Amino acid sequence: MGFPRNPFITPVPSVGTTATDSSISEYTNCSYSQNNQKMSDNIVCENGHATCNACSEKTQKCHSCILPIRRMRNRILEDVADSLRVCCSFKNYGCPATVRYPDKINHEKFCSFIECLCPIEICNVKGTSEMIYAHCKVMHKDFVKPFVFCRKFPVSVRLNDNFFILQEENTDIVFVLNNTTCSYGNILTMCCLGPLAAGCCPYEIEVNANSSHKFHSATQNIQGTGNYYRSFSGFLLDSDHKFFADGMIKMEFCVYRAPELA
After folding, report:
1. How far, in Å, CA of 144 to CA of 52, rounded?
2. 216 and 206 in contact (C-beta within 8 Å)?
3. Rounded to 5 degrees, what are φ and ψ at 56?
4. Rounded Cα gap, residues 146 and 168, in angstroms
5. What is the rounded average pLDDT of the residues 75-88?
6. Handedness of CA 23, 26, 28, 34 (dihedral sign)
7. Which residues contact 175 (CB under 8 A, 6 or more apart)?
């Protein structure tokens, strides 16, 4: 005959098993940790209810009983959380990894299956960078320009366009040309849509306005244009120059394969 289950106690996942973010936040009574994933320095209230350090800094009251949160760490619960293994948040996109809970943030930051957003502003499709490449190739083929690594190709964008989408034909990579308008003119930079570990692709932009002007740099990796901080360091063009009188920026591009993509 077993003991009756206490309805006020949430079962803790066994040490060494795979847990979920929701199960961890349940037994810590912490609503914030599910998104922030920080379980170190676990703090308890006067009744012994646990919450993560991040939540304790945001509120002075316990999520469960409203009593004040004491600055006392629950070492046992911290050890349990540190021993748990959890699935990557991008499991649905194909990531097979299970990692220690404290390592989850860093893994997902560099995960090759990280969620990316379609760079077309009116489209809400999400997926891996490879999924977005296939999606753009089929659904937005009239809005993207194909190119091949190490070959020069022409690009024309309007002065007031924010983004221009490019696709490398022989890989699953989408690139975004960012056009930032400022008081000095237009600043051009190029980004790669994909995981941070994908490597940076060198590129050069050439504009022939009476004389040739070249800019050399390397791409940074982003997962979507919506949260991209528009850079004020890049190829600065004087948009008042007579060369741009028709409202268009005409240039030649060349993008080189990153060593990590070889």
Report:
1. 45
2. no
3. -65, -30
4. 6
5. 76
6. positive
7. 165, 166, 167, 168, 190, 191, 192, 193, 201, 219, 255
Residue with the larger pLDDT of the pair 184 and 116: 116
Residue whose structure tokens are 């003119």: 185
Long-range contacts of 138-147 (CB under 8 A, 24+ apart): 140/165, 144/174, 147/253, 147/255
Cα separation, 112 vs 119, whole angstroms:
18
Give pTM, 2 decimals: 0.69
Q: Which two tokens stand for residue 117?
A: 């957003």
Pick the closest to residue 191 from 159, 153, 238, 233 (CA basis): 233
Residue 155 CB burial class (10 angstroms; 0-12, 13-18, ≥19):
middle
Tell me if residue 142 falls in helix, strand or coil: coil
Q: Which residues fall within 8 angstroms of residue 110, CB to CB, at 6 or more apart? A: 195, 196, 197
- Helix residue ranges per DSSP H, 88-223: 104-110, 129-139
pLDDT digits (tens, 9 = 90+) for 84-128: 788 899 999 999 999 888 888 889 989 999 999 998 878 899 999
pLDDT digit string, tens, across residues 16-34: 455 556 555 555 445 445 5
Q: What is the pLDDT at residue 141? A: 86
List b or e across 63-81, with b for residues whose CB sees 16 or more CB atoms inside 10 angstroms.
Answer: beeeeebeeeebeebbebb
